[in-house]
Amino acid sequence: MNVTEALKTRISVRAFLDRPVGEDEVRQILDTARWTPSGGNLQPWKVHVVTGDARQRVIDAVKAKLNTDPFADENDFPVYPEKLWEPYRTRRFDLGEQMYDLLAIPREDKMGRLNHLLKNFDFFDAPVGLFFVIEKAMNPNQWAHLGMFMLAVALAAEEAGLGTCMQEAWTRYSKTVGTALGIAETEQVYCGMALGHPDPDAPVNRLRSERAEVDDFAVFQKQ
Predict the structure, then answer these.
(1) Which residues contact 97 (CB under 8 A, 6 or more apart)?
(2) How many angstroms from the chain centroid is the CA of residue 189?
(3) pLDDT per residue over 114-165, tens digit each?
(4) What sign for the dihedral angle of Cα 119, 124, 127, 128?
(5) What pLDDT shows up at residue 72?
(6) Do 33 and 160 touch, CB atoms closer than 8 A?
(7) What is the pTM of this model?
(8) Residues sharing a CB contact under 8 Å with residue 112, sequence separation 6 or more, in sequence order
(9) Domain boundary assignment for the chain
(10) What is the 3-state secondary structure (H, E, C) of 68-93?
(11) Is the pLDDT of residue 70 over 90?
(12) What is the CATH number of domain 3-80+121-203?
């Protein structure tokens, strides 16, 4: 598999098989991703890999928080701007509708849609969860490098025959996750990632989100 194939075949997997992923496999993925470039070679990323009891501990902590305060948002910044504008609003809306169509959950079934959303906090049944962490003192440049690292992890997993889902849903409970994993207060839990073997029969895994054409986002200047 080359880079082009990995980029074009990678999807956000939202249903995984009950099949383990060995620590050696995860280490190999991270060993590949560590070559991600970063400004000044700071390599500002940290990763907490959770499996077994540690994975369950995080799940239980966040679900307890959901039960006591379902509208909590522990993060210092929202995942999305408060009021999205076009074309971003339509892109997000269309993705949601395409996903729920595949799941056969109509718009009026609010509980059904909520229950699917809550599957984020089970890693969509993936056996491995990853949490990406950065020092709070870092600036937006280093956050960009963290994002580059996350994509490298996803592509390396794709090459290894595994699937991933980058999960910003965990961001709302970043402090709860940090406490469950003993992460220092000087560090920010940004995003989770589910890692495992995709379920090929799950309808939701047929979702391949659309992308804007090159001319929609690129400006070629010759003079």
Answers:
(1) 107
(2) 12
(3) 999 999 999 999 999 999 999 999 999 999 999 999 999 999 999 999 999 9
(4) negative
(5) 84
(6) no
(7) 0.94
(8) 103, 105, 106
(9) 3-80+121-203
(10) HCCCCCCCCCCCCCCCCCCCHHHHHH
(11) no
(12) 3.40.109.10
